[in-house]
Amino acid sequence: MPSPAPVWLFTGPEIGERNAAVDQLKAFATKTHGNPEMHTLYSADTPLGQVISLLQNGSLFASARFVVLRNAELIKKKEDVSQLVSWATSSAGREDVFLVLISDSIGIDKKIEACVSKDRKKIFWELFENRKQQWITSFFRKEGYQIDPDAVDAILETVENNTDALRTACSRLILFFSPDHQITEDDIETYLSHNREENAFTLFDALSKQNLENALSILEKISLSKESSPVQIIAGLTYCFRRLGDWHRLAAQGVRDDFALKRAGFSGKRAQEQYRRAASAWNLLSASRILALLAKTDSAIRDGGNVVHRILLDTCIVNIVENAGQGCEALHYS
User: Fold this and answer.
1) Within a domain: residue 2?
2) Any domain includes 312
3) Three-class SS of residue 40?
4) C-alpha distance across the termini of the chain, in Å
5) Residue 50: which residues within 8 A CB-CB, separation 6 or more?
6) d(CA 88, CA 94)
7) Domain end point (choices 103, 123, 143)
8) What confidence tens digit (pLDDT) does each residue in 42-85 have?
9) Enclosing domain of residue 82
10) pTM of the predicted model, to two decimals?
11) Alpha carbons 70 and 10: distance in angstroms, whole number
């Protein structure tokens, strides 16, 4: 059996578990090589030739090199793909170099994927809703706190739904209370909702209010953060508009009471208010058109260069507010 290339591929939207896998691999590299040279790079900012050069010519004082390359879905140019595959093939069996490719997408270029050993590839899927609730409850229990079910739902409505973002928010929250305090929905409103960072969910909230100026301002803040890629923003909005479609279908079935809505996943009062407002802004047909627009924008972002990403996102947001997804088939992103 041929020796594997020193390349790992971690993809998918569950950032927390994905980061934990990277940390575990870093710990292994440190254990076996003492003090490896560590780098975290972004495909959008770093030419691939520079990445390869770093892998081939690291520091003379380090016994190994460990490079994390994020936004790996952006590696698309034929020459870049060929260069990376060539390096991976020629480096098979090496134990003193680690290249970890990271992507919020499910997959990347097929030729690159093909040179990664099966046991070094993993997709980190988003947790199911019940697992997210269990994760939050378990986090507080381990820290010695109790939390109301409505407070758990409020956290999920406020914070981006991956364990990395949830861990950060929950860790901040416990700083405000002693262990004998029962954390309530009001606490979430007071300490998280008014101090939250912008993400796809706050962007959807602004869109549901038809506030284009605020939506574009939120998009600007998200875009300036390295923590959220354009693909991740689109994925978050897609999730929200799919939920809006679910809301309309439930309404068509006559489902309107709080208990039934909670069973369907619309747990907190704020979530129900938000989706009622969104349902007034966009009917089921509009929600379907917006989902088509988001899919087209996602494809254009993956195909286009980094320079046009913001233009594509701005165009998408303006269309959602002003045209409700209509005319997306006429848009050209080349």
Assistant:
1) no
2) yes
3) strand
4) 44
5) none
6) 10
7) 123
8) 887 789 999 999 998 866 677 899 999 998 988 989 999 999 99
9) 7-123
10) 0.64
11) 10
How distant, in Å, are the alpha carbons of 47, 118, 264 from that of 5? 21, 11, 45
214 & 286 share domain: yes
**11 backbone dihedrals φ, ψ, rounded to 5°:** -125, 175
163-173 and 149-158 helices cross at what angle (nearest 10)? 120
Question: Is residue 1 domain-resident?
Answer: no
Angle, alpha carbons 19-160-315 (nearest 5°): 110
Q: Is 14 helix (H, G, I), strand (E, B) or coil?
A: coil
Counting the structural domains of the chain, the total is: 2
CATH of the domain at 309: 1.20.272.10
Nearest Cα residue to 36 out of 68, 59, 62: 62
| Domain finish residue from 123, 150, 178 | 123
SS3 content of the chain, % helix, strand, coil (to 5): 60, 10, 30
At 241-295, the pLDDT tens digits run 988 998 898 888 877 777 777 777 776 777 788 899 999 999 999 998 999 899 8
Assign 3-class secondary structure to 218-260.
HHHHHHCCCCCCHHHHHHHHHHHHHHHHHHHHHHHCCCCCHHH
Query: Do residues 168 and 244 both lie within one domain?
Result: yes
Q: What is the CATH number of the domain that holds 30?
A: 3.40.50.300
Instruction: Locate 119 and state its tokens.
Output: 């046991």
